[in-house]
Design brief:
Two copies of one chain form a homodimer. Chain A is globular. Helices cover about 40% and strands about 15% of the residues of chain A. Chain A is of the alpha/beta class. The model of chain A has no long low-confidence stretch (mean pLDDT about 95). In chain A, a hairpin with a 5-residue loop joins strand 3 and strand 4. The two termini of chain A are about 20 Å apart. Chains A and B meet through helix 2, helix 4, helix 7, helix 8 and helix 9 of A and helix 2, helix 4, helix 7, helix 8 and helix 9 of B. Bound molecules: adenosine-5'-triphosphate (2 copies) and magnesium ion (2 copies). One adenosine-5'-triphosphate sits at the interface of chains B and A.
């Protein structure tokens, strides 16, 4: 079971879009994928038609199980989506109160990791969609994943924020046993603007091999897919954005599900 | 002194771009504006050339003053920008630890409001750039402001998240004396895509007069402005995006500074 986290403290860089699209490409009758929404805002949860305001079975319950002394177990909390082989662990707005509730209480950084150990073998891939903020939820996701995907918008402000994300990783790295591999994914690349080409060149200069050699282009069909509540690869399999994410999957060792 | 907060829990909708552009349009030799970066990620701080990793004088210090029992006073923390009449109160990454540190300690929701009372009369406008997450920082900004601007991307996922933002307001409203007026600002409007027109129509149907009648169009020059570290109105005064923000200012009662 491969566990990938999709994270960046900068907002609106394509974290949810990356999680949904990769989940769509990986899942099928022979290959099972679990998408976990670790963001209190619940974009992924809403994408699949659930309401984070009222959701009562999801990631938050893992933390309440742990606070009561039990080992967190997601089995009864997981929901099926309408797509074969694609399951969900949803978010709720209550997750936004976790940092305040847990305060400086120790040991709450491994809740997600312990929970995913319970479903080892039931899924081929688990994808974690992270919130745009460093807190207990992001720390949980970074402790639970084998590899980290960092979507970065190809523009100046986003590059500035990336340094901070990498510094955060170095901080978390100290508390992990295995090395946390990460890969930077240039997203929302608009080939018509000079600023995008300059930002991309700068990104490759600063981070070299840590950056995936391809780019995810701007593709307005992602917006249509989100209003339809389905991964774009199920709607328009040869859309520009889908083909780019398929190339990414090959580069990071993901096996595309047989269509 | 008018205090406006720019907030939305959804990431990447143009909060920082709105704060910077309105700040540029309002500020000048005769009209003084304070921009406050309330986001631990520090996009606004980085935009003006400061580093949120190392910044030691800013919003975080207001909270430490308050935790030590003093009344928070921003006077010594405010920095001048290189633009006349435009000052900054910067963010630092340490702000991300506030929720955990403060835990359920009461009374920390009014720090920003008390601090801004200390500079009453020194500024004509104060703009608060909020983080994409509900926590003690957002609560502080909502308690400190007279009016709230909510940038909303004109697409499906962002509309779903808006409901949650409005519910949050209703929650915070209970603890405020004066009514919190808000206005929804359609941003990143791409007139070439059907999804944008549909989302805009749906936004107006759901929220009626709470939505500003105009739109902020997609304008790639905002990206060039952010790499140049200056508000777009100082670089290209008649750019599409700048003209749209000037229209917005007129609608919300802002006085454009004499160029
Ligand atoms: N390659 C793309 N082309 C066009 N639009 C895109 C692309 N990727 C993402 N988007 C759009 O950009 C917006 C932001 O994307 P998304 O919500 O995935 O970002 P995020 O990083 O998850 O945001 P948040 O920080 O709020 O969690 C969405 O409207 C999405 O449809
Ligand atoms: N009207 C616009 N046209 C084109 N690009 C825009 C526009 N408004 C914002 N942008 C770009 O979109 C990206 C996101 O904008 P911005 O950082 O202002 O959003 P935000 O809501 O502050 O994000 P965060 O949630 O991370 O704080 C930036 O790259 C910015 O340059
Ligand atoms: Mg997201
Ligand atoms: Mg911002």
């Amino acid at each position: 079971m491969k566990v990938w986290a999709v994270a960046n403290q900068k907002g609106g860089v394509g974290k949810t879009t990356t999680t949904v699209t990769l989940g769509g490409l990986l899942s099928g009758p022979e290959q099972r994928v679990l998408l976990v929404d670790v963001d209190p805002h619940g974009s992924l949860t809403a994408y699949f038609g659930h309401d984070p305001e009222t959701a009562t079975r999801g990631v938050y319950e893992l933390f309440s199980q742990c606070a009561e002394g039990a080992t967190p177990d997601p089995t009864a909390l997981i929901r099926e989506s309408r797509f074969p082989g694609l399951d969900l662990l949803t978010a709720s707005t209550a997750l936004a109160t976790l940092d305040r509730q847990l305060g400086t209480r120790s040991g709450m950084g491994l809740v997600l990791r312990q929970a995913l150990e319970k479903v080892e073998g039931q899924y081929d891939y688990v994808l974690l969609d992270c919130p745009p903020m460093l807190g207990v939820l992001m720390v949980n996701a970074l402790a639970a994943c084998d590899e980290l995907l960092i979507p970065v918008q190809t523009e100046f402000l986003a590059l500035k924020g990336l340094e901070r994300m990498i510094n955060t990783l170095k901080m978390v790295q100290k508390s992990r046993k295995a090395e946390l591999k990460y890969r930077i994914i240039p997203t929302l690349f608009d080939r018509r603007t000079r600023a995008a080409h300059e930002a991309l060149a700068e990104l490759r200069r600063l981070y070299g091999d840590d950056v995936w050699p391809g780019v995810i282009p701007v593709d307005t069909k992602f917006r249509d897919a989100s209003s339809a509540g389905q991964p774009l690869c199920f709607m328009i399999p040869d859309a520009r954005g889908v083909l780019a994410y398929s190339d990414l999957l090959e580069a990071i060792g993901g096996r595309l599900s047989e269509p």
